[in-house]
Amino acid sequence: MTIEGALDVAGAVLILIGAFFTLTAAVGLVRLPDVLNRMHAASKPQSLGFLLLCAGLALVLRDPGATTLLILAGGMQLVTAPVATQMMGKAAYRTGQFRSDIVVVDDRSPNGDDDPAGRDENG
Hints:
- There is one protein chain.
- Helices cover 72% and strands 0% of the residues.
- The chain is built from 3 helices and no strands.
- The relative contact order is 0.13.
């Protein structure tokens, strides 16, 4: 097997693994119960899947211009996805658009207790 063949196989494997992670992120966005859980699926496996797709494409294409663009796209993904996810989580928390019954510990509660909605024991 030549070096080009090995790079093509490695690229194809990376593309398939990246597609799997991206599919996992999409399923997580549909199946998870609330925004605070969905934001993990929107950032973690999706970012890893996108980076693996970019790496696989760079190995398959082997073009310096395309590789530069893929590195730039991957870098932008690493910079923007965590910030966007953090902002989504803060907005969901501040507006109460999450399921407070599945939050175990709420460090940001204004009244110092573990109830994210700020309710007392009686509801």
